[in-house]
Amino acid sequence: MILRLAGGLGNQITQLGAALLLSERVGCKKIIVDDSGLSSYQEKHVNQLINYFNLEKLNIRIICKRLFITRTRLPRLLALDIANYPLISDKNFQTALKGTNRYLWLDDYFGDCLTQEDVNREIEILKPILKPSKIPYKDGCVVHIRGGDYLDFGGGEVASPEFYQKAIKKMQQDYGIDRFYVVTNDKEYASTILQDINFSFIGGSMSEDFYLMGQFKFRILSSSSFASWASALGVNDNGGAVIIPKEWMPGIKRRTKLPNEVNV
Least enclosed by CB within 10 Å: which of 98, 147, 227, 243? Predict the structure, then answer.
C-alpha cells in the first residue's frame, strides 16, 4: 500500500488511521508513506507521525520513502468506485474497505468518508501506539481556538464567537466550570472571543497543545482535525464532555462524533 501524506499533524493522523484501517480489512502487511508532498505547502509541513506514534508497535511495516509516481496524483483524478480498484480517494474508500486487493494507492484526506464504526476502530488502532503524555490529567475545561489562516477558510463561521459563548455557558451551567484554559495559535483573536470570561492561556508548542487538550476532562474545540484527534486519543473514560462545531467548514457537516461529545 502507498499512502501520500498531506497537511499538518491532524490531517496526517487522519490519513494514517485510514491506511491502517484499510490494511487491517484487506490484510496488507506493508505501507509505504510518501511525505514528499508536504514541502509543497506555503507553510512547509514535515512528517510528524514518527514524533507522536510508536509505529514499530504495529503488526505491519511502515516505510517512509519518496516515490516519483505519487506526483501524478492519479487516485485523486481516477478514483473509480469499482470493487478491488487500486487507486483510492475519499470517493471510493468505503468500496475499498469491502474488497480484497492488498495493492492500493491512497491519496486524499480521508476525513469525510468514514462511518462512526470506522472512526471508533481507528481510535482503537491508534491509541495504543500514541506516545504517552508527560502532562498530568486535568479536571477542568480546555478551549481550543484556532485563528490565523483557519479563519480565511471559513473556520471563523463554524467555530464562531457565538459557538464558543454557547459552549462556555453550557460548561458553566451543566458542569459547574468557572475557569477556562485556552490553547490557541492566535491570542489576539482568542481574546476578542473570551471577553468577560475567567481564562488563562496555556501551551505554546504543537506537542504541548496536542497533549494538553487530551488531558482535560472537559473540552471546547474548534472544528479542526488537530483538535479532534487530540481529543479522540486523549483521556475519555472519565465522564467528561466535549463540545465541537457541527460542521468542519461552512456547508460541510461532520458525519461522526467524538468520544464524550455533547450537543450545544
Answer: 98
pTM of the predicted model, to two decimals? Answer: 0.95
Strand partners, 206: none
pLDDT in tens, 178-194: 999 999 999 999 999 99
166 closest CA partner among 225, 244, 218, 228: 244
> Domain residue spans in the chain?
2-129, 138-253
Query: Can you read off the three cell numbers belonging to residue 8?
Result: 499538518
Q: Which amino acid is at 77?
A: L
How far apart CA 143 and CA 231 sit, in angstroms, is 11
Percent of the residues in the chain that have a pLDDT greater than 90, as a whole number: 86
At 36-69, the pLDDT tens digits run 988 776 667 899 999 999 999 999 999 999 999 9
- For residue 226 the three cell numbers come to 488537530
Query: With contact defined as beta carbons under 8 Å apart, do 130 and 27 qualify?
Result: no
Output the CATH code of domain 138-253.
3.40.50.11350
What is the C-alpha to C-alpha distance for residues 223 and 144, in angstroms, rounded to an integer?
9
Give the integer Cα–Cα distance in Å for 235 and 213. 9
**From CA 129, how far away is CA 40, in angstroms rounded?**
28
Here the cell at position 104 is 492500493
> CA-to-CA distance for 39 and 34, rounded, in angstroms?
11
**How would CATH label the architecture of 2-129?**
3-Layer(aba) Sandwich (3.40)
Fill in the DSSP letter of residue 53.
Answer: B
Instruction: Give yes or no for a contact between 18 and 106, defined as CB atoms under 8 angstroms apart.
Output: yes
Helix, strand counts (H, E) of the chain = 11, 12
Q: Are 32 and 1 spatial neighbours (Cβ–Cβ below 8 Å)?
A: yes
Determine how many CB atoms are found less than 10 A away from the CB of residue 59.
7
